[in-house]
Amino acid sequence: MKKNPLIAVFFVVFIDLVGFGIVIPILPYYAKSFGAQATTLGWLMMCYSGMQFLFSPFWGSLSDRIGRRPVILTCLVGISASMALLGFAKSLVWLFSARLLAGFFGANISTAAAYIADVTKPENRARGMGMIGAAFGLGFLFGPALGGILSRWGYGTGGYVAAGLALLNFLFAVMVLKEPRLSAEIRAQHRSHPTFKAWRRTISVPQTGLAVILFFLVTMGIAQLETSFALFLLARFHLDAVHAGWILALMALFMVGIQGGAIGKLVRWAGEPKLVAAGCALMAIGLFSASFSHTLPLFVFFLLFQSIGYAITNPSLSALVSRHSPREIQGSAMGIYQSAGSLARVIGPVTAGVLFDHLGISAPFLVASLLFGAALILVSVRKQVWDGNNRSAEIAYSETA
Fold it and tell me: What is the pTM of this model?
């Protein structure tokens, strides 16, 4: 494994995401046990994404100077501490402190992606990044199910286990993860630091700008679901964190199945633009129908529509950004694409909480379906900008330089 850094990074990210996934089904119930309403839960989820959004550039710049390995190891220790604090939580203040700390140290994924860029040639980079996607999917498959099971022994138990996993991950990374032998200048080239100018260029070019806007809308919709999902289960079906964990694991299983094998065949058959349109339609129909479902089997059935839609939309959008941005600024374009998603996860949870508390338990699902519907209309009207080769995008980028 020491001779294959991609495998080492895969396991580091996988173990990290299992620990992160453990928290997902228990956090809403944990917060509610301290008297939190949906609006408070929205702020709780937002503070994690907000800290990531603010401090990922800091960790990225630091990893350019001192190396990827020290940053990954530091973040793993910090994540372990934040999960332990979550387990010890005695009030909402403790929960907020734990999530703020987790968000501050939550730079592992972006640094791992930069690590892969360091150790792979450009022609092999997509395969390397795909391993992070696979680790993501598998982590979200096992993590929520484990978190739901652990909730039987108290909501803090999941935090303790996640802290232990992060600590084991630290020891694992110490043994197997080696620093790439690159200069700080070369590392910086493999890392994206989006600037205002880069944002303007990426958004103003139709091919990449459309994909970034669509990703923002889709991620806003996903944030509505993530924030209100457990509270919806509790309010309508009187289900606890155990059931939430198993349902989330089932959704992740469908997503892993599609993204792990079927997506390549689907792209060859239909192409990314049609898959984005189909995915947005499935997500809109799925969540709209789920919001009116009053039996659990029907509710889960429509949620699987949403999972399948997201599984084909997300990789298709990222592929479109990668394909239509010139190679010399591809890292910057992908960084802006991901930043748009991070911004949506800052805004989305708060709006979901307010909607749940003031407009009813179905309101976040309905707003999410509207966001997916808006994305569907936009891609249907504008998908022709992706027709043809990458030459027009290169010209557009050169004109905005």
Answer: 0.82
